[in-house]
Design goal:
Blueprint (H helix, E strand, L loop, with lengths): L4 H6 L4 E9 L7 E2 L13 E5 L1 H7 L1 E6 L4 H5 L4 E5 H7 L9 E4 L2 E12 L8 E5 H8 L11 E6 L4 H12 L15 H41 L1 H10 L7 H4 L5 H6 L1
Parallel strand pairs: 3-8, 5-7
Antiparallel strand pairs: 1-3, 1-9, 2-6, 4-7, 5-8, 6-7
Length: about 260
């Protein structure tokens, strides 16, 4: 990512907020509530580095405090945003005393606590530090899907597909093929896919119901016939002979009866 990735993405028409973020060393950080505290409370918590633009694109819902701003990034301040779950586990319940959490023994002042985000839900069970602070203390982002740098862009309604086609060129005009842009699906296409899937599901359920009904009727008929096998055989053996034609079965009238007529 270029150093001015936030500004380059923000100049695209339709982008409301954009910024770079990555996950900081997800395996080797020690997170505690005090300098010498145990690491049990911070076990499993993730640390994310994010620019103010990325935090704005996440659209966090603050429970207390403030969010990251350009001053914190520009000054490389050791500050942190906590997810509500992480704050509860670390015992941070009030911000008026400017509490701090410790990452690898270094203090980070808690700026705010957020309870929800519209994007990047992985950050809910973790904390966010300014990207410049993370670069100073932890170095460049790593490699791999879970450690490499990403850019998150929030767009106006209907502009996502257009922004996706321009984003790679805006960020790396020299090598746009090095970036992979993932855009959300078009709402109309998504609705068509959902509708077709539901139609296919209902047709499959109807076919299954027909098969089950046919098998049930056939089973009931077979059981009824099997239960009356003896009766059916007795009726067929003692029943009347097959009917003949009326002309051959009726007796002929005597000759004198025809004369009397």
């Amino acid at each position: 990512m270029p150093a001015d990735a936030d500004a380059r993405a923000g100049r695209i028409d339709g982008v409301t907020a954009a910024g770079v973020w990555w996950r900081v060393d997800p395996d080797g950080l020690r997170i505690t509530a005090t300098p010498t505290g145990g690491a049990e409370a911070g076990r499993g918590l993730a640390v994310f580095a994010a620019s103010p633009g990325a935090v704005a694109a996440m659209h966090p819902v603050l429970a207390a405090g403030v969010t990251l701003d350009a001053f914190a990034e520009r000054s490389r301040l050791p500050v942190v945003l906590l997810g509500e779950a992480a704050a509860n586990r670390l015992g941070v319940h009030r911000l008026d005393a400017q509490p701090a959490v410790f990452i690898d023994g270094l203090p980070y002042t808690v700026l705010g606590v957020y309870r929800d985000v519209e994007r990047l839900p992985d950050t809910l069970l973790g904390m966010i530090v300014p990207d410049t602070t993370a670069l100073d203390r932890f170095g460049n982002p790593g490699t791999g899907e879970d450690r490499s740098a990403h850019l998150l862009a929030a767009t106006r309604a209907g502009a996502a597909s257009v922004v996706a086609r321009q984003l790679a060129v805006a960020l790396r005009p020299d090598a746009p093929e090095r970036l992979t842009v993932t855009a959300p699906p078009d709402p109309h296409s998504l609705q068509d896919h959902v509708t077709s899937d539901l139609t296919g599901l209902f047709l499959a359920l109807a076919a299954i119901c027909l098969v089950v009904g046919a098998v049930g009727i056939a089973n009931t008929t077979l059981v009824a016939v099997l239960e009356r096998t003896e009766e059916i055989g007795l009726r067929r053996s003692s029943g009347p002979a097959p009917a003949t034609s009326p002309r051959s079965s009726s007796p002929s009238r005597p000759h004198w009866a025809r004369s009397a007529d």
